[in-house]
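Re: that backbone. Tokens:
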């Protein structure tokens, strides 16, 4: 019994931190630009493919540092794509209705899928984790793959880093000022356009890193962008649109609900995430850390 509970908690943490890694950049863009970026999954996918290309160049049995170089390469490539998207797309969406933003970012997702098919093809691709992450750790009777532990720790580190960046640094203070009132920020002499650009580049780079870190043990295909996207949107919405802390807490909550639900009712995988999403939003439509709207 204790073995089953321990393994279920571990699986819930793995689900939560993998999803948070994807959702972090998504919630940051919405919190600052107030754009619900449907293309986020596509750039996550590109990050995975870029990391795959780097790892493939070094061959099999690569060390952990090469894996991390692949993640940094994914961050740089996707961050540069974020710069281009901000220049040519997001700047045109800041003064239009939300429906146009949704259409434009969904179109970007389709472009990402087409680009992946053109560059890497339609075949399913895969890469094993580095040897140092391809083992098992036992805690009592519970076995924990080291790669999954690495993913969990990466999610925790990403959350702590974002919290420190947003709340303890000068650039974080500027980002929060611009997010609350960009008009007043301009009056105070802040370069709002540049702050937007930095935020977009950083958010896209996080999507690239997430794709790279979650790439091992995944089947890479042009459909990869949609696999985590629904879960990431659920975490962002339940956490409170634009709240990093809310997204982290929502990931933990939904991860545990999904894991224990699947353990108790294995014939219905995935349904408990959707049920929890619906119930939580019925009880608190603004999300865990969201602010209630007033007329």
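Recovered sequence:
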């Amino acid at each position: 019994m204790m073995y089953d509970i321990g393994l279920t908690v571990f699986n819930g943490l793995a689900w939560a931190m993998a999803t948070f890694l994807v959702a972090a950049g998504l919630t940051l863009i919405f919190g600052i630009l107030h754009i619900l970026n449907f293309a986020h999954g596509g750039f996550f996918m590109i990050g995975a493919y870029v990391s795959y290309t780097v790892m493939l160049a070094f061959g099999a049995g690569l060390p952990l540092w090469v894996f991390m170089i692949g993640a940094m390469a994914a961050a740089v490539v996707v961050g540069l794509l974020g710069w281009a998207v901000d220049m040519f797309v997001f700047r045109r969406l800041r003064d239009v209705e939300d429906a146009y933003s949704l259409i434009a970012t969904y179109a970007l997702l389709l472009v990402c899928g087409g680009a992946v098919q053109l560059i890497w093809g339609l075949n399913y691709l895969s890469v094993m984790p580095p040897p140092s992450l391809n083992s098992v750790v036992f805690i009592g009777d519970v076995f924990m793959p080291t790669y999954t532990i690495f993913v969990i720790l990466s999610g925790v580190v990403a959350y702590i880093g974002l919290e420190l960046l947003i709340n303890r640094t000068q650039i974080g203070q500027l980002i929060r000022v611009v997010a609350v009132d960009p008009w007043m920020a301009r009056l105070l002499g802040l370069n709002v356009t540049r702050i937007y650009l930095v935020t977009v580049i950083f958010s896209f780079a996080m999507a690239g890193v997430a794709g790279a870190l979650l790439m091992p043990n995944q089947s890479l295909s042009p459909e990869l962008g949609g696999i985590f996207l629904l879960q990431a949107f659920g975490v962002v919405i339940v956490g409170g649109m634009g709240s990093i802390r809310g997204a982290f807490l929502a990931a933990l909550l939904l991860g545990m609900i999904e894991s224990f639900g699947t353990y108790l009712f294995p014939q219905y995988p995935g349904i408990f995430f959707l049920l929890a999403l619906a119930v939580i939003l019925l009880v608190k439509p603004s999300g865990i850390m969201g602010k209630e709207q007033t007329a």
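Residues 54 and 70 are 5 Å apart (CA to CA). DSSP finds twelve helices and two strands in the chain.
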